[in-house]
C-alpha cells in the first residue's frame, strides 16, 4: 500500500494542518494530494473526522485556506480531510480543455467511459482509498465516527456519497451537509456535461447512481442533512435545491432530517461558505460526538 509523504505542516488553532501526497492506485497510479487538519487533542488518541469535498476548479487547498472551518473543528476536537477534486496529469485528450470538466472537475464518480475509466475514479478514491491510506499511516483519525460535507460540485459529492452509503447498508457517514450543492445534476448543464463525459451510460447512468434528488427518494430510514445556498447565487440555476427539498418531503423526511436553507443575498463564493462554516461544523459535531 502507498504511504503518505508529508509536504508541509503548519500549526493552526492549537492543532496542525499537514499537506501530504501519495501514489494513488484508484486514480491510475498518479500522485494524489490532500490536506489533513488534526486538532490538538488528537495527541491523546483518535478523533472523529469530517471529509470535505471541494467544488469545480478547486484543489485540496481552497477550503483549507479560505473555508473557515478549523477554529470550530479545533474547539470540537474534530479532524478534517481535504482531498483534491480530480486526478492530475492523466494525459487524457481534452482533460484540460474546459474548466467544468476534466482536471479540477472529477464530479466524485467512478468513470465508466473507456477514455476516463482508468484515472477518473474519485468515488472510490474518497470512500475507500483515502481512509485505508490514512489508517495505515497511523494518523489518529477514527473513521467509525465520520461525517461528510462539501461545496458546489463537492456538495453534490457529499450528498451522493452519504446517501449511497445508507442505501448500501454501510452507513459510513453519521451526517451530511452541503454549501450550494448541485442537487439534481442529471437535469442541469454542469451535471449533464459531466455524466455524458465520464459515464458510458451518460445521463441515465448518472441519474440512477449519482443524482442526490433521485437517491433521496430511495432511502428508507433516518437521515441527517443540512443544506445552505445563497439566494443571490449566480449559479443557482445549476443547483436546484428546491427539487431536492421536494423529493425529500415526498420521501417522508421533514426538516428535522433534511433542512434546506436559502440564505438571503449570499453568492456562491467562499465568503458565503466561511460565513456558515461554524454552523456546519457544530451540526456535525452533534452526531460525531454523540
From TrEMBL:
A GO CC annotation given for this chain: cytosol
Active-site residues (renumbered): 152 (charge relay system), 233 (charge relay system), 268 (charge relay system)
One Gene Ontology MF term: S-formylglutathione hydrolase activity
Signal peptide (from-to): none
EC number: 3.1.2.12
Catalytic activity: S-formylglutathione + H2O = formate + glutathione + H(+)
The entry's keywords: Cytoplasm, Hydrolase, Serine esterase
Family annotation (Pfam families): Esterase
Localization in the cell: Cytoplasm
Biological processes per GO annotation: formaldehyde catabolic process
InterPro entries referenced in this protein's UniProt entry, alphabetically: AB_hydrolase_fold (IPR029058), Esterase-like (IPR000801), S-formylglutathione_hydrol (IPR014186)
Enzyme category, top tier: hydrolase
Family, per entry: Belongs to the esterase D family.
Role summary: Serine hydrolase involved in the detoxification of formaldehyde.
Official protein name in the record: S-formylglutathione hydrolase
Organism per entry: Pisolithus tinctorius Marx 270
